[in-house]
Write a structure and sequence with these properties.
The chain is α+β, with helices and mostly antiparallel strands. The protein has 2 helices and 8 strands, in the order αβββββαβββ. The strands form 2 sheets. Strands 3-4-5-6-7-8 form a 6-stranded antiparallel β-sheet.
């Protein structure tokens, strides 16, 4: 009986030690992943915000989200952006945010492609340009949108040339 009890105790001890080791490895892996993610986003923020924080860098008036739908919000390097009443772009990765233009890639949707792009947004590049001063704040006033695969079957004004952005 004593032998069975010792074996059970040893088995439980080994299992508990193994589980503690696995838990420690899991915590270490999460900390490492968080550190690399944090430093990666910090590098991206430094890269885009370095220019964007300067007083000369314009904002974009963004009507994305219910809280901004009516009045818009002046932002720099937003993650999502309403371009027009027909088109929005999400998951933006800013390549440039300068004093004359800002360029990003993302996924675009619009009422002109609802049947195809609602569930699978289209890859696109957006360029914001033509800054002007509105209510004492410099904001981009136009956008150009270019689909990665070309316009193809889509007939939309937003895909042809420069278009006005909301500036207030």
């Amino acid at each position: 009986m004593q032998s069975t009890s010792n074996t059970t105790w040893r088995t439980k001890t080994v299992v508990a030690t193994a589980l503690a080791g696995v838990a420690a490895c899991g915590v270490l892996a999460l900390q490492t992943a968080h550190a690399s993610t944090s430093s990666g986003s910090a590098e991206q923020t430094a890269r885009t915000a370095g220019v964007a924080r300067g007083s000369a860098a314009p904002y974009v008036v963004n009507h994305y989200g219910e809280e901004n739908a009516d009045n818009g919000r002046a932002e720099r390097t937003p993650k999502n952006l309403v371009l027009s009443e027909f088109t929005s772009i999400s998951g933006l990765h800013w390549k440039e945010w300068g004093t004359k233009e800002a360029v990003a890639t993302g996924k675009v949707t619009g009422n002109w492609c609802l049947e195809t792009c609602l569930d699978k947004p289209l890859k696109a590049t957006v360029t914001l340009s033509d800054p002007k001063t509105v209510n004492g704040k410099k904001v981009f006033s136009t956008f150009t949108l270019k689909l990665a695969q070309g316009t193809g079957e889509y007939e939309s004004e937003d895909l042809q040339g420069k278009h006005a952005l909301a500036t207030s």
